[in-house]
C-alpha cells in the first residue's frame, strides 16, 4: 500500500501537520513566529554538518536547532528581540547556504533542502515523521497545563513553582524535532510557515486552547492534502503549493471572522 509515492506524500504531510499543530499554537500565542523562522533557517547548517561529517540528518539538525535556541537565550536582553532574531535568522540561512555550497555534489540538491521534496519521501522518512509527531505530541500533552500557564502569565507560573524558562526549553526541543522532521517535506524556508499559518487560520474558529489545537491540526492536514492535489493537477512544486493552500485557508477563516463581526448579534 505504501508503494504509491502520492500516498506516502499524503501521510507525510498529515504527519507533519499533526506535529506542527500544538506547537504552532504556542508559537502564535507567544508571538514566536520569527523565532520559528530562525530555528528553521539554522537547519541548513545542520544539513551542511550532516553532509560534511557523514552523519544522519535528523540528529544533526536537532543539535544545530538547539544551539540556535541557546544562542538566542544567551543574547536576549542585549538587543531588541526582533532585531536579534532577524540577524540570527538571516545570518543562519546565509551561513547554511554558503556551507552547503562548499560540499561537492550537493548544489543540485540545494532546492530540496530549501523547499523540500515531499514526493520523494520514503518509508523510513514516514517512520521518522510520524515518530517525531508522536514524541512532540506526547511532550506537549505532558507539559500542556504548565506551558499554558507560563504562556498566559509567567509571573503566576513562577508563583505556582513552574519555571517559565524550563517551559521555553520544552518548546525549543519540540520545535527542533519538528524542524528536523519537516525539512524533508517543505524545506528549511517553508517549515516556519507550516508552523504559523494553520495556527493563525484556526485562531478565529476556536474559543479554547484545546479547540484551537484541534482546529490547527485539521487545517494543517487539509492544507497538506489540498496542496498535494493542487500540485498534482497544476504541475507546481509540492512544498510551496501546500503553504499556498494553508494561506488560502487563513484568508477564508479571517474573512469568515470579519463577516461574523459585522453581523448583528
Explain this structure.
By secondary structure, the protein is mostly helical. The protein has a single domain, classed as ABC transporter involved in vitamin B12 uptake, BtuC. It is 80% helix and 0% strand. It is built from twelve helices and no strands. The chain has helices at 5-29, 33-53, 57-75, 81-101, 110-115, 123-142, 144-152, 154-159, 164-182, 187-202, 209-234, 238-262. Helix 10 (187-202) runs parallel beside helix 12. The longest helix has 26 residues, at 209-234. It is globular, with a radius of gyration of 18 Å.
Summarize the structure.
With 265 residues, the protein is an all-alpha fold. 80% of the residues lie in helices and 0% in strands.
Write a concise keyword list for the protein shown above.
mainly alpha, ABC transporter involved in vitamin B12 uptake, BtuC, 12 helices
